[in-house]
Automatic annotation (TrEMBL):
Keyword vocabulary terms for this entry: Cell shape, Membrane, Transmembrane, Transmembrane helix
Chief subcellular location: membrane
Localization: Membrane
The species this protein was found in: Streptomyces toxytricini (Actinomyces toxytricini)
Protein name, entry field: FtsW/RodA/SpoVE family cell cycle protein
Positions of the UniProt region annotated as Disordered: 453-474
InterPro entries membership: FtsW/RodA
Transmembrane segments: 23-46, 52-69, 81-99, 123-141, 150-167, 179-208, 228-245, 251-268, 275-296, 352-373, 394-418, 424-446
Membrane topology annotation: Multi-pass membrane protein
């Protein structure tokens, strides 16, 4: 006698999506800026600001819409990226509104431009447009791997974006740097968007060429040096970064693009020699260009001795005031709305907005903000590790590397650790181009993380596996 039993296949176990965790974190990401807004109003005017409810409600609606899009179209995405970006953006609007209340900055704007207009309402408008762009990225880009088809098109597009600011009649020279274009009355910084577009080219190119670039010809002082003919890509990017530095006087964008390529090259090839070569070329190029470019020389002098040229150079005065802001903040800071970082004057709410954090929130606040930025970078790197395709890995690490480099050059510049670059702190600084580009970057990372974390579909049932005859002896 025998017994026949049926065994069926077990489908894939459903993994938690972590969307409820994201929603709970978003509540804190909205409440904290509202409390900060109230704090500023009480410190400056002695009463709650009249627009607090409108600001809090608007931020809550925007965060809710972004969460709905992620819950609907990127169910398995990383749950930390959206709340951290929302918190930083919300606190950035509070910092900009705080500086809008400064009588010094109001009088400076009236003397320079004839009138003063608050930047905080415009920043909220830019944030709303940025959230719409964030949603569009998730809605239109169903799979990040489709961008691989546009590898060389993205290279051409990034070159066009970088060339636009130097075209006569279209580009604008703002305090020595040619990084803006004027379109229909709006100023746009194409370099902010070029960092995303060029990351597509780097990822697609290195995915195909990484085996050739990983080959070594000889060993020197513990490093495997690449073959001469494989140095072409890094020489090309190095030359492009120098051209940006020469024609646009933009040290930040030049450093950002070259540094991002070196990071992605190292990840693709796992050769330390590329890092060493990249650093040497970066320092050499900066020294050569800095010798001839007066704009770069002024920033280097301001970095070396800001108080030596304090009364003769605007760059020295700004860096000196920034350093004093961090120093006067101490460990706990002077408190929201009770600092004097507005003495920096021009660019207090853009390039130097991190100085307000250092003075009014102190070392503890600076470390908290850097920790939030570090978490975005860490989640981006984790996404790159979890990605199942090489293009996604390189793309995620490229975006995370560009984001980290921007944080480093901005924070280092305003603290006097490196020469000032003129770039803006992501999500904090006033300006539409920066907030739009960085929300698009977060959207792309969320899309890649959703693809990486999504459980593999269960295998199609097979008649042989659904029913197996097991014969047991009687």
């Amino acid at each position: 006698m025998s017994v026949v039993t049926n065994t069926t296949t077990i489908g894939a176990i459903e993994l938690p999506s972590r969307r409820n965790t994201e929603l709970m974190l978003l509540v804190f990401a909205v409440v904290i800026p509202i409390f900060a807004y109230a704090n500023v109003g009480l410190a400056i005017h002695g009463e709650l600001p009249p627009g607090m409810l409108a600001y809090g409600g608007g931020l809550a609606v925007l965060a809710g819409l972004a969460h709905f899009v992620v819950r609907r179209y990127a169910k398995y995405a990383d749950p930390l990226l959206l709340p951290i970006a929302t918190l930083l953006n919300g606190l950035g609007c509070v910092l900009i509104w705080r500086l809008d209340q400064s009588e010094r900055l109001q009088n400076l704007a009236k003397r320079s431009f004839g009138a003063f207009s608050e930047s905080a309402p415009r920043q909220m408008m830019y944030t709303a447009v940025a959230i719409a762009l964030f949603a569009a990225v998730l809605l239109l880009m169903k799979d990040h791997r489709t961008l691989q088809r546009f590898t060389y098109i993205s290279m051409a597009a990034s070159l066009v974006l970088l060339i636009l600011p130097v075209i006569p009649g279209l580009g604008a020279d703002v305090f020595g740097a040619k990084i803006w274009i004027s379109v229909a009355g709006f100023s746009i910084q194409p370099g902010e968007f070029a960092k995303i577009v060029i990351a597509v080219f780097f990822a697609g190119y290195l995915m195909v060429k990484r085996d050739a670039l990983a080959l070594a010809s000889r060993r020197f002082m513990g490093l495997y040096l690449p073959r001469g003919r494989d140095l072409g890509p890094i020489l090309m990017i190095w030359a492009m970064s120098l051209l940006i530095l020469v024609f646009e006087n933009d040290l930040g964008t030049s450093l950002l693009f070259f540094g991002m390529f070196v990071i992605m090259l190292y990840v693709a090839t796992e050769r330390t020699s590329w890092i060493v070569i990249g650093l040497l070329m970066s320092v050499g190029g900066a020294v050569v260009v800095g010798t001839f470019a007066s704009h770069v020389q002024a920033r280097v002098n301001a970095w070396l001795d800001p108080f030596g040229c304090y009364n003769t150079s605007g760059a020295c005065m700004q860096v000196g005031q920034s350093i004093m802001s961090f120093g006067s903040g101490g460990v706990l800071g002077t408190g929201w709305g009770q600092g004097n970082s507005d003495l920096i004057g021009f660019a207090a709410n853009s390039d130097f907005i991190f100085s307000t954090v250092g003075e009014e929130l102190g070392l503890s606040g600076v470390m908290a903000f850097l920790l939030l930025y570090g978490l975005i970078i860490e989640r981006g790197v984790r996404t790159a590790l979890a990605a199942r395709d090489p293009f996604g890995k390189l793309f995620a690490i490229g975006l995370s590397g560009a984001f980290s480099l921007q944080i480093f050059v901005v924070a280092g510049g305003v603290m006097g650790l490196i020469p000032l670059t003129g770039m803006t702190m992501p999500f904090l600084a006033s300006g539409g181009s920066s907030v739009l580009a960085n929300w698009a970057l977060i959207g792309i990372l969320i899309r890649i993380s959703d693809t990486a974390r999504r459980p593999a579909p269960a295998p199609a049932p097979s008649p042989d596996s659904e029913m197996t005859q097991v014969v047991r002896p009687s």
